[in-house]
Amino acid sequence: MAETEQTAKPQLPPRPPQQQQQQEQPPSEQPSQQPRSLTCKYFPMTLSETDLDALAPGEWVTDDAIDFYFRYLKHRYFPDNKKYVYITVKLAMLLTTRAVESTSSHIRDLASDANALDYEMQCLRKPKNIRVAFLPIFGDGHWSLLVYRRGVSSHGHGHRHRRNGEKEEEEEEELPEFLHFNSYLNSTRENHTQCARTALINLLYVFRENDPDMVISKDSYKLVVKNCPQQTNGNDCGVFVCAYAYILSARIAAREDTRRAGGAIHSIVRRFSGIASSSASPLSADHRGASDRLSFAEKNPAKDSPPDSDDDAAWKIKDKDAIHPDSMRDYLIKVICKSTTPTSKNHNASL
């Protein structure tokens, strides 16, 4: 027994005096181990290694990581398109936490604070130009995604128009719609839906303050709680918000590309149609109205492909569309590493 005890003791030998002395060096003589800063190449934002480490499975995604990815989506899909807006986390926090009051002074202060936080993007100054806005909502320790869709008039536009040359009338416009994507509906439906409702009402107040011509109030909206893929743990909510925003942004961008391609083809057809009609004989011109040929120049683009109409299927996220949280975390790490430049001297190229 004595030999057994003696052989077990050396498993944890004391540190040699030299190692202890090296451990106790003054702070000024110790090697620098400051975390790296990751500076974005495309827009003014910096992340830390803590934000990157928080993307490991089982960790809570940081506010800055979500903010970064939302700005990345804007840069990737709609860099010069002001119709699609990604609200920053700080601005969304203001809209979520500020109490809802309808007094003019409260709304004025709210809009002033919101515009101050929006000084860089300035996406709220002209709300009529916004077709879709993405808001990351945080409340009760949980993240969700709120999407604003501008109301579309029954005539496809929502402009003022004249009828019979007499008086100007306002076309009937549908209410703005808010879609709420919550990955933890069973536990947070009631409380977190209220957080989303507070954010959307305050957003509408900011819109109205920035553009008094917008006829909106706290009751002039539709809030739809969407069925969507659900998380199976208590730490993936931020990852699901990024996944929802990615899926919807990719769909919208694809629709925009299709619309632009269709518009280009339509323009070419109209141009050739005009050339053909100008070179036609007088006889064919006299009987143009009786022709059974389709004249592309007479088509109404607003009726053929309403620019403001969105297929409801594009705003559904089904289980088959879901991205595994760990795969989404890996993707976010790759996006951040590819889009940033380490500013620390101790850069590890493998990251």
Name a few traits of the molecule.
alpha+beta, 351 residues, 3-stranded antiparallel sheet, disordered N terminus, globular, 11 helices, disordered C terminus, 5-stranded mixed sheet
Description:
- The chain is an alpha+beta fold.
- It is built from eleven helices and ten strands.
- It has helices at residues 2-8, 17-23, 49-53, 63-77, 89-97, 104-117, 185-210, 237-278, 282-286, 301-304, 325-339; strands at 37-40, 46-48, 84-86, 132-139, 142-149, 160-163, 167-170, 177-181, 222-226, 340-342.
- The chain has a five-stranded mixed sheet with strand order 3-4-5-8-9. Strands 2-1-10 form a three-stranded antiparallel sheet. It has a two-stranded antiparallel ribbon with strand order 6-7.
- α7 (185-210) links the parallel β8 (177-181) and β9 (222-226).
- α6 (104-117) packs across α7 (185-210).
Mean pLDDT comes to 77
Largest beta-sheet characterization: 5 strands, mixed
Number of helices: 11
Any idea what the shape is?
globular
Order of helices and strands: HHEEHHEHHEEEEEHEHHHHE
- Find the structural class using helix and strand composition: alpha+beta
Strand order in space, largest sheet: 3-4-5-8-9
Assembly state of the chains shown: single chain
Estimate percent helicity: 40-55%
Question: How many β-strand runs?
Answer: 10
Poorly predicted residue ranges: 1-28, 153-171, 272-309, 345-351
What would a concise description of this structure say?
α4 (63-77) runs parallel beside α8 (237-278) and α5 (89-97) runs antiparallel to α6 (104-117). Helices cover 42% and strands 13% of the residues. With 351 residues, it is of the alpha+beta class.
